[in-house]
Amino acid sequence: MGNEWDAIVVGAGPNGLTAAAVLARAGRSVLVVESADTIGGGTRTDEAFGTGIRRDVCAAVHPTGFSSPAFAELGVSERVEWCVPDVSFAHAFSAADGLGVYRDPAALEGELGGDAAAWRRTVGWDVEVAHDVLGMPGLPRRPLSMAGFGPLALAPLDAFTRSAFRDERVRTTFAAVAAHAGRPTRSAASTAPGLLLGLLAAPGWPVAAGGSQSIADALAAIVRENGGAIETGSYITDFDELPAARQYFFDVSPRALTAIMGDRLPSRYRRRLDGFTYGGGVCKVDFLLREPIPWTGRGAAALGATATFHIARDRAQIRATEDAVAAGRLPERPWVLGGEPTRVDRSRAPAGTHLAWAYCHVPAGCEADVSDLIVAEIERCAPGFSDLIAERTVMTAAAHARYNPNCVGGDINCGAASLRQLLARPVPSLRPHETPVPGVYLCSSAAAPGGGVHGMSGYRAAKTALERADARRR
Ligand SMILES: Cc1cc2nc3c(=O)[nH]c(=O)nc-3n(C[C@H](O)[C@H](O)[C@H](O)COP(=O)(O)OP(=O)(O)OC[C@H]3O[C@@H](n4cnc5c(N)ncnc54)[C@H](O)[C@@H]3O)c2cc1C
């Protein structure tokens, strides 16, 4: 039987669509097959609060997308209107106190006070370092910087914050950024996500105008303009369901890949994928508000000028949350990660309405609705918040897993950001996207470089395949 397609991509998340866009632009005939009725995976935007009100179901803020080498090469950034706030993210400690991480170096220095130089030295790396991190395990373009960045990134978060900064407020602000990845703060390499996201505060943490869906739509347009096709509503459970093709790219979890490929994968590789670990889940609340969140106190200006906020009284609250989740317990008073997209993107909701979202980490597979705990934390720092809620929707960790099979147990990054899986994702290899089956690639965030809407896993899987084909032709 002849091949119907050069490449089939299973999964239309940002990584699958990026792989498809790279392949289509290289002249390959590409079919993308997606299980959901709409494309985008973690970048979907819906109208849960009514027509014309654009809510991001999952990913909302895009530090890695804005600085993604893959999106730059594909011209995604020219098709997406980025709304870049002056304050990349802000931290609320209480109703009296907060701290903003401004893009402007002088404004940032003013916020950080005596820790400004330490922040510059440890977090203020050039954006090229982020490109090198997103390109791991490839050769770094900035080896000297990476030699400085690497050892800091490998440190446990508790030890790093204690030794790097003197002010407990700065320590807590950094700890919250690093804790996006949901790792216990004493674990090796729990600093790494903070350094990557922290250095990306300088270029910016934007939202996409109209919602994150516009990123997926931009990628899909590139696929279609280059002759590719996208089919939705097809959940693939077995390799035999797929049309014949030269190459296959799976934007799926390692668990799904082993189920789909079955005995076609060598048993040694399957055992390795079986050892791949997933992180905890999140419980997310979306709010339709009558007014923006009424931040007060010292951080109010910064919190009112950003699309992303973190809430934790201190590092102990972050540590207790992540320890509880790692032990399979619900945190009693979780630290909270959230955002107000309508602060910077007024196109999403009619005048007089505002959007906010917030989530906290919970154990994998957890069915519990902890939205009251999240509301209580926001209320603690912004008194009167509860009275402004017109509507709210809740997605538990278990609901996230049902919504998107890549969110195994509600893990938003499709794989824990453990030391092992930072260095070898999904398995130790210089070409981590390649499977032992010729022409079969894993291109989801379960493969290097990991979670986030940057398309780099799809980009690198596609580039590896194109390089292989070139090498065969020579
Ligand atoms: C609640 C939440 C908040 C987040 N916030 C942010 C954020 O603010 N910023 C950020 O950068 N990242 C964020 N993320 C993470 C980000 O969304 C993911 O890292 C990113 O979407 C991963 O892209 P992907 O293409 O690998 O997988 P996904 O986006 O998960 O897409 C995978 C796609 O494959 C499809 N699929 C899976 N299995 C099959 C199958 N067997 N057959 C057919 N189709 C299949 C799925 O339906 C899905 O559409 C968040 C994620 C969640 C869940």
From TrEMBL:
Tree of life domain: Bacteria
Pfam families: NAD_binding_8
Name this polypeptide is given: FAD dependent oxidoreductase
Species of origin: Gordonia neofelifaecis NRRL B-59395
